[in-house]
């Protein structure tokens, strides 16, 4: 007896999907997964905003980078796994919902991580997410003999690292930062080791779409967080915030434009894939941090923050510069762009980092990004004209 293709089974063997599969696109479960994860992103950005606004710069940076690593790494691992092994049976859906539950637990632990340095709840949420991922990898090891060596290494490696994260909770405060670095490196090394027997069959266009969609969702969180900050200010009678709101909009629009200026291609070799996939930690984290920086600027305009103009400027300039440099490395350099555009990205990043030393840093950053977007548009039109000239009879 066979199952109707319109009916989803309770369980089916987990076979690897083809890299050549046509019309491979994000599923409703993947989109739901992203939306739930962005709750944790919003909490991390809010913690960064409040810490920077209060002048706790070092604590803000360390807490934010650690919290965002947990969010990004769990999201990334599910994304690549689903690209290769999404069976969409009920067991797969339930296991993924457990991962989402872990993300919500993690989000609940973000405030105490920033205010008290207590990462207990975040660790529990992270371990829930990752052990659910072990269930996925175990199913893949059973159902896909061709990639059993890789999937087994994933299951064993992820389990071992999660034991390390739980043991970290027993360490004294002096060992928390070094142990985080060691365990984060161990997490990063699991795919490096696991994929060497033979890469899993993730779908390049599907991965590009998934990363693009998460970029959109993080940008949406920035828009919402910034809007709420401006709304709070205007409700308090601060009508002078409108110019800053306009500049914030230009900055966010430019970040979107630069990421989606051309089609995104994912490298297919293991080294290039790892660099591309891991590099997006900086893309996602910097986008969310821009929203936190704009909120700090609103606090400064409202006279409720405790930092000066230079710190406010760098709260926006640093993540924007990181974003530009990462995008340059992943999507611009060596991707058929004109030499002027290739040079413009790092030059613009350097100029952005200088803006806090002068007046009105946010306005200058918006102007620089507008100029960079304009340059990419001109370069793209040049490439189109050159292509037409080449193909004309």
Keywords:
2 domains, globular, about 75% helix, mainly alpha, 12 helices, about 400 residues
- N- to C-terminal distance: 58 Å
Task: Tell how many strands the DSSP assignment holds.
Answer: 0
Figure out the total of helices.
12
Number of domains: 2
Radius of gyration using CA atoms only: 22 Å
Low-confidence runs (pLDDT<50, min 5 residues)?
Answer: none
Instruction: Give the % helix.
Output: over 70%
Largest sheet geometry: none
Could you tell me the mean pLDDT? 89
> How does the helix and strand content classify structurally?
mainly alpha
H/E series, N to C? HHHHHHHHHHHH
Q: Characterize the overall form.
A: globular
In terms of DSSP E residues, the strand content is under 5%
Keywords: Membrane, Transmembrane, Transmembrane helix
Transmembrane segments: 31-49, 61-82, 94-114, 213-230, 242-260, 281-298, 310-330, 360-378
Protein name: Low temperature requirement protein A
InterPro entries: Low_temperature_requirement_A
Describe this entry's structure for a reader.
The chain is mostly helical and 393 residues long. The chain has 12 helices and no strands. It is globular. 42% of the residues are buried. The mean pLDDT is 89. This is Low temperature requirement protein A. The chain crosses the membrane at residues 31-49, 61-82, 94-114, 213-230, 242-260, 281-298, 310-330, 360-378. Pfam families: LtrA (PF06772). Keywords: Membrane, Transmembrane, Transmembrane helix.
